[in-house]
Write a structure and sequence with these properties.
Elements: H1 2-9, H2 12-26, H3 34-39, H4 47-75, H5 79-98, H6 102-117, H7 119-129, H8 135-162, H9 168-188, H10 201-220, H11 226-249, H12 254-271, H13 275-305, H14 315-333, H15 340-364, H16 368-394, H17 399-425, H18 434-475, H19 482-486
Length: about 475
């Protein structure tokens, strides 16, 4: 029992459980072949029904539940939402298998919107049960395992379809088993005792107690006097008691919720008052919107370029290759020494332009292999840039504020995506076919490229001009004035 207790107390225990859950929940062999399955004899839906009536529901559902799920995730302390996500994923898979009409498929998309909105619980859970020094390693494990699961699912689906080892329905039954395994591991996760916003005071009390222990150890290893330590210890003890009194005095009710929301609003205003963070966040929201639209509807484009009934499709292999290359591209950024504060905005514009060119070529080519290659290039470019943006934004933010900015940027992306979906895709809007849709997406990224390229050139010009102004007084052997030195 003691060994089991020590194992559960170790940081590897919750990390391993979360990684196993992340792997089994992302192995989806049928996902790269969803369009051929829905439009084939199993479901007998038309491409227009899937494209213009069924898929848009996911966007609307995602937007409607994102903010409530974000707040409930923190209030419920993550684990219940992770368990709920696994249940919603099971329901989604079951509905794909056993339902057929357009209305039933729209309900399936609603549940899938709740699955994707609950991702915030998966990525936030680990920060509530681990020490700060373990954050980076645990985060890398969780993200890598999710990528591995998606890659394994894509490769497995490709093999099963190419060699006709399983029918589409049997693949879905196999996916249901994997989802049930994920649910089991979600239930085994330990319940966190604290969270970033609603349950953070207990953490503060613990940190205050740890400060006393550290101070005591510091006394034994240094020349600080015992009286000084006692004064410091008394002060820390009083602070901890005050925090404990406040914790007992406040209840988790409407007033506490209002205080949290007010603090979130203050942090939101403070974070986005920084101009550089604002520009990076604008790109994040705009590019993520376009990326999501492209990934959601690219199978419809592939089906249009060369219908799957006439040849063996390679969607699974393409998704696996694009995921692995995107991971390698994002990983390589960590070893690149570039002054992103100076060159970052130009990089956002330039690489977004390359992504737009890839989308245009995908749209108007009649060759499926060219379409595949352009998709891989586009996905790698996005993963490259979003990694840079996330690093630049997170560099000067605490974990709580980074979570807030992360959620706000994704909400902005989803709001833009909802507008584009309702106007361009939805049958109640323009209801465009797939080629005009991708023309809109390519033009959208072209707009992003122009805006951020101009902004990047301006940033470089301003930086060089400032550097020249700083060096001019020294060239004339004159000391710079105080204002120039501060600038």
């Amino acid at each position: 029992m003691e060994a089991v207790r020590r194992c559960r107390a170790d940081w590897r225990y919750p990390t391993t459980l979360l990684c196993v859950y992340g792997f089994f929940s992302t192995v989806k062999p049928l996902e790269p072949f969803m369009i051929p399955y829905l439009t084939g004899p199993d479901k007998n839906l038309t491409a227009e029904e899937v494209n213009n009536q069924i898929f848009p529901v996911w966007t609307y559902s995602y937007l409607s539940v994102l903010v409530p799920v974000f707040l409930l995730t923190d209030w419920l302390r993550y684990k219940p939402v992770v368990v709920f996500q696994s249940l919603a994923l099971f329901i989604t898979t079951a509905m794909i298998l056993w339902t057929q009409s357009v209305q039933e498929m729209q309900a399936m998309q609603f549940f899938y919107g709740m699955v994707t909105a609950s991702d915030v619980a998966y990525f936030s859970y680990i920060y509530s049960v681990l020490d700060l020094k373990r954050y980076r390693k645990a985060t890398s494990y969780c993200r890598s395992v999710q990528l591995l699961g998606f890659t394994v699912g894509s490769v497995l689906g490709q093999l099963l379809v190419s060699f006709n080892l399983m029918s589409y329905n049997n693949i879905l039954v196999f996916t249901l088993v994997l989802t049930a395994v994920a649910f089991l591991f979600a239930c085994l996760l330990p319940m966190p005792e604290q969270s970033m916003f609603f349950h953070r005071r207990q953490k503060a009390v613990t940190e205050g107690t740890e400060t006393i222990v550290v101070a005591k150890e510091h006394v034994h290893g240094s020349k600080v006097s015992l009286d000084e330590f006692r004064v410091e210890k008394r002060r820390e003890t009083e602070d901890v008691k005050e925090l404990e009194d406040e914790e007992r005095a406040e209840s988790v009710g409407a007033e506490s919720c209002g205080n949290v929301l007010l603090q979130l609003w203050r942090d939101f205003r403070l974070c986005y008052s920084t101009r550089q963070l604002l520009y990076w966040s604008v790109w994040w929201a705009m590019a993520t919107c376009g990326y999501n639209q492209t990934v959601n509807y690219v199978q419809v484009l592939w089906e249009h370029v060369q219908p799957s009934q006439n040849f063996t499709i390679y969607n699974g292999g393409v998704e696996a290759v694009s995921s692995l290359l995107s991971a390698a591209t994002a990983y390589g950024i960590g070893f690149t020494e570039v002054r992103w504060e100076q060159w970052g905005e130009l990089a956002l514009g330039g690489f977004s332009g390359l992504g737009a060119a890839a989308l245009f070529l995908m749209t108007f080519t009649g060759n499926i292999w060219v379409c595949y290659v352009c998709y891989i290039i586009f996905k790698c470019l996005y993963m490259l840039l979003i990694t840079i943006a996330m690093y630049q934004i997170a560099a000067d933010l605490s974990m709580e504020r980074y979570a807030l900015v992360f959620g706000a940027n994704n909400f902005g992306a989803l709001a833009l995506q909802t507008i584009i979906t309702s106007v361009v895709v939805d049958s109640r809007g323009l209801g465009l076919s797939i080629i005009p849709q991708f023309t809109v997406y390519a033009s959208y990224f072209s707009f992003i490229a122009v805006v951020f390229s101009l902004r990047g050139l301006y940033t470089i010009w301003r930086t060089q001009r400032s550097s020249k102004d700083l060096t001019t007084p020294s060239d004339r052997n004159e000391p710079p004035d105080d204002d120039e030195h501060r600038f």
